[in-house]
User: Fold this.
Amino acid sequence: MRRSSSGALKDEVIVNSTQTNGPEERVVVTGFGTICSWGEDVDQLWRHLCAGDPAYGPSSSLAEQAGDALSLQAHLQTHSAAEVSFDPRARFLGRNIRPVDRTGRLAIIAAENALESSRWTEELRGEHLVGLSLGTLFGSVQTISAFDRRGLEAGPKYVKPLDFANTVINAAAGQTAIWHGLRGTNSTVAGGSPAALQAIGQARDLLRAGRADAMLAGGAEELCFESFYGFQQAGHLATGEDPQALPFDARGTGLVLAEGAALLALETESRARERGIDARAVILGHGSAFDPSRGRKEPSAVRAVDRAVRSALADARVEPGEIDVVFAGSAGRPAADRAEALGLQSVFAERNGSGPVPVTAVKACLGESFGASGAFQTLALVLAIEHGQVPATRGLEQLPDDLVAPSLDFRRQLLDLRPRVGLVTSMGLDGNAVALVVGAPDRPVGAP
Amino acid sequence: MRSRRDGAARIVVTGIGLVAPVGIGRETVWSRLLEGKDGISEVESFDASRHAAQRGGEVKHFDPSPWFRRLNPELVGRATQLAICAARQAVDDAGVLDASVEPERIGVAMGTTSGEPGRVEDFDDRYLAGELDQVGGEFVGGYPCHVIAANLAEEFDFAGPNIMIPAACAAGNYAMGYALDALRDGRSDIMLAGGADAFSRITYTGFARLGAIAPEVCQPFDKNRQGMMPGEGSAVLVLERLEDAVARGSEIYAEVGGYGLSCDAHHMTAAHPEGDGAARAMRQALEHAEADAEEVSYISAHGTGTPTNDRLETKAVRQVFGSRADRVPISSIKSMIGHTMGAASAIESAVCSLAVREGRIPPTIHFEEADPECDLDCVPNEAREIPVAVAMNNAYAFGGNNASVIFRRFEG
Assistant:
């Protein structure tokens, strides 16, 4: 049975849709899958986001993961993080998951859920080329570091070949392809928090080019002692007795780290129609820009956000006034959050009387999962389109005065609104700004 | 796929920068490759005494400082140092900084296998020495591989789209494909596309454990080949639309015809037994470039020198080229510089660009005895002069990622 929620305008969309397979064809979301500290159930993820629950808390295994609990424990100033717990033996019943590391497992689970939700069955995957574009920050720094340490401690003969295979940064994407038989284009995009948005944009373009029949696109990131400790030493982590992620808030002290994976299943509109599966959203456009000051000069950072958003809007042929909501990437680092907010101000100053655009930052609940986070933001927007609600930015109380702008409505409460077109933005730690425009499936093509 | 037939812009190579174990600089590297110079030497960058094999393709006597203007070379990792060396050459070669192109219209697409492994190796040394307290911001600030592309953009003040594609040993070709699309889609006016990897004890240890490293020399396609040779280096190419290149009077090396990508979905470190994924990537690249297999007059092989790779690559080439396979020269410069990982297919893209322009093909050196399972013309030991209308660059990676790129001789 076809889902009915996509609405009465569906037939009109199909009639209006442009030529099949080409630079103009619409690419739609036909499913999604995820795993995070709340588990794998997308409905549950949505309930928690709307309720403003934190996905993070004291982590139990940060130091244990490194295999030397007591001495490493002492190095950690905080254990607050959003940690995924699952029993690999039960979760991958009957299949040998041992050759796959934690990042790979997270990606495999999200992919399984996304394939099921988009009904790309094993049989169909044998007949069609389903590909994968995966965002990441580190690959698995735990795998790489542990491999190196074993070679140094025990000697090079005692490292495991299987571990070496996982030290390459595209290992999770490769393992996921092998696990699920994904023979389409396989790509990994590195870049931290904006990486999944770049991966989704890349997948959109590859589909339009006919390089795959469907693409899973998003990202995965693991939590481990090595990266957690590194971020602590770099001064990026939220501090205090009970560290909180406070996007846009003057009280923000830094990041709360998270792990997880999220993937959207994408295909061209014509293929979705052929398969009789409903579109749940449309990837309308993407854009990116770089700040050569890498956040050190605010005007340069703001310009990068502004340019990335304008480039995505131009790609989507959408005016700033048509954007109904922004799912921002802000995560609680005040300077970066400011740059993103000021960049949005600069774009949405041109709303031409459309009223302020609601802005929300789901990392207040989810924490920062780097390679995966852009996919979580995009998934949240797709769910907002489906459920007709926009979650608040959890904990937002003290918006700095200079971020207050008539064009932006930083949400402190849940909003009943069914976005027709939404924007996802992210600014990386190293100057990369990326934006994605996502539309409701029943928004008529070329509609103002 | 948008190709020339659909009115997509023609994309050309207007600048090349190279740093490899045989030397530094485009002309130096190219002439030494044509001479058949072996760039393999004893490993010096770390203590390799516990390994059976102890040779590799290191870039010796490399001083990064002359290539840097803005960043401090001592504060970035070696992969970035190599990448900026190559990028500076390419930018100067193409006259990018004099081209009155807005920095916001200049983008960067880079590939790598390991990013900046030196940073994680330092972390591990401190971990094992009980000196974790000395870990500072340089670990998470300098280790994530995307810093290579970010460092390039910062060094040159390029503010256009910036992407890092860590598709392992096929990453350079992925970057070429990404740059081609970014230019055709009008996302930028100039793209720097390339790859970089630094010599690393992690990579060396891994390949040694797989028993994949040749003890003395790398002998692709030879019957007695004993393995690959880890290496390091970087290549960066400047790509732009033909009309822009002509308008500013740039020298044109080659036209980027098209690219193909595929995934084996078979095994992390072993290729598909029939070379199916590799063949799909080659076919897709030919289709995208609107090139016929009959037109291809040079193939830059992945050609790592491992017994399996070269055998399967031969099968895949035969699958795609049929009887034409007997008449297409296919050489592996890895015989001279080793396997430079994420830089490899970028360096080989530079080689293909030079080969189509000059009508010269670098050899596969150390070729002694023919292998009936690798019965292609591997340009043994001596460079060859032959008109090259179309060159194909093949690359295969861990994770089963395959990428092929087509370069055409530019004829106006």
In short: Chain B has two domains: 13-247, 258-408. The longest helix of chain B spans residues 78-94. Chain B has twelve helices and 15 strands. The domain at 258-408 of chain B is CATH 3.40.47.10 (Peroxisomal Thiolase; Chain A, domain 1).
